[in-house]
Fold:
Amino acid sequence: MGILSQLSIIHVLWAATVFCQYVDYDFEDEYDDVPDQHPFYFNPSTQDEVPRFPFPVECARECFCPPAFPLSMYCDHRKLKMIPNIPSHVQQLYLQSNDIEAVPAGPFSNVTFLREINLSHNKIKFHMIDHGVFAKLPNLLQIHLQHNELEEFPFPLPSSLERLFLGFNKISQLSGNALEGLPNITMLDLCNNFLDDSVLKGKPFSNMKNLMQLNLCNNKLQTMPPDLPSSLMYLSLENNSISYVPENYFNRLPKIIALRMSRNNLQNIPRNTFNLPNLLELNLGHNKLKQVFYIPRSLQHLYIEDNDIEFINVTLMCPSIDPLNTNQLTYIRVDQNKLTVPISTYAFFCFPHIRTIYYGEQNINANKSTQLRMTVFRRFLTPEEYHEADDDNEIQDHETEEDHEAEDNYFHPYFQ
Structure:
């Protein structure tokens, strides 16, 4: 009986333990404070205006909509001839590098939140864009239409637009009202088109009060574009036929940071033309300049290679020295000119931050290029400057003309 009694007691205790576990633990306690959940819906926290949509999201069968980027639709490099229907939730649409010839309104009929369209590298012509197709997209910020066959500026466009890329087309006309109603444009690229002075006589850029970057390189301009907005910071005019810059032209453009006018027909620059308080980069290479000009104290990079300069008059560049407001010039490129002697050492008093002067080869004789005693001047840096330059990857042991060509390529016509 003793053994049976002990077994009975053990059994009672085990049953009581199990019963207590189920009584003490309330399975519903875990979910009492949990809000309603939608496990099958994606709701981006940073874009409250976008409605919830099923996951995986709707996507045109010709395209790819990665789950990691549910607001983007990738239809590029697919040999498409037509624009597929666009789901209403899409914000970024990539259609570059196809064979698209037209932009009809149909595929965009249900689109509300589209912010960026990339239609570059296609075969689109102006008359094949349905009138108002872009203007009906109220949230559109950026359009890429470079490398197409546009003959005219595409308009109308939405007032929300901030960046417009139209380079590498055949644009030769700007209708009088084409650029009206675009108060938010900050960047306009019209490089590599057929624009001439007559197209700009109507001063099409004058009302673009927020324009910061204007690219007009590789066109047919012979004079400076008129009435540019005072907000402009980056101006690209390379590869035109501009022969003269009026002395007071930049007075109304005090915010200019970078100016690129290489490969024009410039011969004489009025002394104070570039007296700009914020100018950092000035590229006047591959022109016909015979003498230098005043350098603003803010300038850091100066490119005047491949001109007809025989002597660099430092006094013209720097008429006075102010120890409390020193010139910031660090780099000068003067190769392919007609220099017979290096720049005067007075330059190092005027420009105490100079690190490199690239002389390269000089075109002293018509049929033969020669080199000065030194092809590259590099100032010895202080330990502090050395570490700063090293951090910026500016220290090089050997320099060749190819190195400086590569540096020029770094300053791409399309400002970064």
Q: What stands out?
A: The first strand starts at residue 41 and ends at 42. The two ends are 95 Å apart (CA to CA). Confidence is low (pLDDT under 50) at residues 15-51, 394-398, 409-416. The helical segments are 2-24, 197-200, 314-317, 347-350, 383-391, 401-410.
